[in-house]
Structure formats: C-alpha cells, structure tokens
Amino acid sequence: MTLSTFMYIPILLAFILTIWAQFRVKGTFNKWSEVQTQSGLTGYEAARRMLDANGLHDVPIEPVRGALTDHYDPIARVVRLSEPVYYENSISAVSVACHEVGHAIQHQQSYSMLVLRHRMFPFVNFASGIAPFLLLAGFLFDFMNLVGLGIIFFSAAVAFQVVTLPVEFNASNRARDIMISEGFITNDEERGVAKVLNAAALTYVAAALLSLLELLRYILIFVNNRD
C-alpha cells in the first residue's frame, strides 16, 4: 500500500464523521425544538433583543424558507432565520437565532477573523471553482505542474474553512454569554443551548478536517510523482 493510497483511510473516516455530524446537528436541533424556553421568546424576538442590546437597531431580521438555512448576510447586513427558528420559542430556535446575531456583532466590531474571512472570499470563490478542474486535468494528462497549480487553489479553499472555525466558535460564545446576561435563557437551559451550538460547530470541524486530509493526499501524490 502506497502512502497516498493509505491516506484514503483517514479521508474515509473524516467523510463518515462529516455525515455523522450532519445527522447529529439535525437530531439535536429537532430534540431541543421540542423544549420551549422559560422566557417564552421566539427566535425572532431573541434575535431582535440581542441586536438592539448591541446597538444594531438598523439590522433587520427576515424569515427564509427551509430548515437550518439560517445565516447572517454581511453584504445586505441582514439576519435571515429559517421559519422554524423565526417563529418558534424553543431552545433550538433561540440558540440558532442568537448565533447568527453573533455574526452581526462580529461584523459591527470588525472581529479580525471575520474581516479576514470576508477579504478571502472573492479569491476563494474563484479558487474553489477552478481547483477541481485543474486537479482533474493534471491527473488525467499526467501534467504535474497543473496539479501543483490546482493544489495552490485548493489550499486557499481549505484555508477559508480553517478561518471559518474561530468565526463560528466566537459567534456561539458571544451568543451564549448574551443569552444568559440578558435573561433569554436560565442557567438550567444553558445545557440545551450548548448541545445545539456544539452540534452545529462539529459540522464545520468535520468539513475542515476532511478538506485538510484531502489536500494532504494531493500533496503526497504530487511529491511522489515529482520524485
């Protein structure tokens, strides 16, 4: 078994972890969607209060269709919440809503990793689109220089995923601190909030790990063929 072939094993394990993480986040969200907050706040109400408490009165909140489609749009400066999160008053709804507001606060305060992520995005958007074609063409025609260029572009996409990790964890930490200090949740409810946010964070960790291992495999193939 060659070294590059051996790398398929951790990649397969990381892929399994990614699938498991996706199932876990859905299962955890569904579980805590059945537990109502003692404050009675819906996801929208918690998000609106959190925004206002941080001086973000001009940032609107919009409902969007789908499940777990929640996100903060830094260009339009709007928090978009999936309909279950927007309208429900569950632990899951409030947790996810406040996490997205955490990104809005990061934007307001020019959080360094978020700023870096935004600056990387235009190039990464281009690089992630072209990298697979460069790698495929390089391997098909045994043109290692093309493979090397593909690795460079793919590295940018991987770096973007790695930078995303502290952005996501920081947004969750901000959300949990404010949710407690503002009385959105009680200390007893913090466990449920942590479960929801940690499950969501695991999907980003798994995706970054999978990409890192895939990048390492490409590098090993490239080095072996150069030798």
Give the integer mean of the pLDDT values: 92
Distance between the termini: 18 Å
Q: What is the percent of helical residues? A: over 70%
Quaternary structure state of the chains depicted: single chain
Please work out how many helical segments DSSP would assign: 8
The strand count comes to 3
Question: What's the shape?
Answer: elongated
Alpha carbon gyration radius: 20 Å
* Cross-sheet strand order for the largest sheet: 1-3-2
Beta-sheet strand percentage? Answer: 5-15%
Low-confidence stretches: none
Characterization of this structure:
The protein is mainly alpha-helical and 227 residues long. It is built from eight helices and three strands. The protein has a three-stranded mixed sheet. It is elongated, with a radius of gyration of 20 Å. 37% of the residues are buried. The model has no long low-confidence stretch (mean pLDDT 92).
